[in-house]
Amino acid sequence: MLTPAISYKLQPLFLHCPIYSKMLHLVLLMILSLSSRVYGKPEVPCYFIFGDSLYDNGNNNDLDTLAKANYPPYGVDFRGGPTGRFTNGRNTADIIAEHLGFDKYIPSFASARGREILEGVNYASGIRDETGQHLGVRISLNNQLQNHQTTISHIESMKGKDSAADLLNKCMYTVGMGSNNYINNYLSNSYNTSHMYTPEQYATVLIQQYSQQLKKLYAYGARKIALLGIGPLGCTPGNVALHGTNGSLCVNFINDAVELFNSKLISLVDELNKDLHDAKFIYVNIYGIGLIPTKAYRLVNSPPCCEVGANINTTFQCVRDGKSCKLFRVLHLFWDATHPSETANIVAGGRSYHALFPSDTYPIDIHHLVRL
């Protein structure tokens, strides 16, 4: 049975902190998220996860790449220790799985065995095939779709083609792509992408390719699909340190570029729902949900919770076996210099499933999507 990885106790000292009311609001959001979990029979028979490192749960572990998180202090608050999740505990996909009622986390494609795949697979590991090449081997969305084909073949061999097709139509799918295409491509000196495209042009190129990939996923039987937008990347500790903020709360030009992508993603949801028979796509407003430091929480430009090396500009990941914050980890929104903490993931996953505000999802949330 899935349970919270760790319990946090607020010490009396915290009660005298001037930002107590802001932090209490965040903790209450977490409690709301935890209290609405569903146990028992899952609301859908299976859940398939596609995405980048924000949703990876171990697919990169055995690859020849620097982009892996299967070492401490990653996983310090996860029951199984370091698993490849780029955070201290659960990621957003884990939280969504809990809300859907699964009593086990969805296995990574790298580890899924036998009949486990009937309840879903996590393929997450950029949208563009070249993204992250400077880090080593990675699993692009095109590769993830190929892996899904392999999974479908195994399901068909177990259940037959007709039963497999019926199962796949009823499953839940989340796709969270785009963050790495900015952090490890458009904003990286290792690529000339930013010299080739304006932010508007780059967002258009990403959406055009994304559209074709999502249509392929639909052709493989997916019908209930949540597209998770990109968060405010200009507020991550890594980008703040690398680019500076000019007195602003975050790096505005990065957030402006991300918002271009997100606005086009909303339009893509409308287009796909109109053009694809029985398709039910929704958009999750990760940017607006507020899991990244905002003025309201007064944690803007807060350092990552783990040690990322002497120069944050050279690496965004935790140092292997490095130090991590001990007190009030629950109050940190970032674990390393670019990936959110379990706190942020609880808020994001909870509000993806059950929107707290109308702006959290479009046109409906996952809770209502799975009931269609």
TrEMBL record:
<keyword id="KW-0964">Secreted</keyword>
<dbReference type="GO" id="GO:0016788">
    <property type="term" value="F:hydrolase activity, acting on ester bonds"/>
</dbReference>
<dbReference type="Pfam" id="PF00657">
    <property type="entry name" value="Lipase_GDSL"/>
</dbReference>
<dbReference type="InterPro" id="IPR001087">
    <property type="entry name" value="GDSL"/>
</dbReference>
<protein>
    <recommendedName>
        <fullName>SGNH hydrolase-type esterase domain-containing protein</fullName>
    </recommendedName>
</protein>
<dbReference type="InterPro" id="IPR036514">
    <property type="entry name" value="SGNH_hydro_sf"/>
</dbReference>
<keyword id="KW-0442">Lipid degradation</keyword>
<dbReference type="GO" id="GO:0005576">
    <property type="term" value="C:extracellular region"/>
</dbReference>
<feature type="signal peptide">
    <location>
        <begin position="1"/>
        <end position="40"/>
    </location>
</feature>
<keyword id="KW-0732">Signal</keyword>
<comment type="similarity">
    <text>Belongs to the 'GDSL' lipolytic enzyme family.</text>
</comment>
<dbReference type="InterPro" id="IPR051238">
    <property type="entry name" value="GDSL_esterase/lipase"/>
</dbReference>
<keyword id="KW-0443">Lipid metabolism</keyword>
<keyword id="KW-0378">Hydrolase</keyword>
<dbReference type="GO" id="GO:0016042">
    <property type="term" value="P:lipid catabolic process"/>
</dbReference>
<dbReference type="InterPro" id="IPR035669">
    <property type="entry name" value="SGNH_plant_lipase-like"/>
</dbReference>
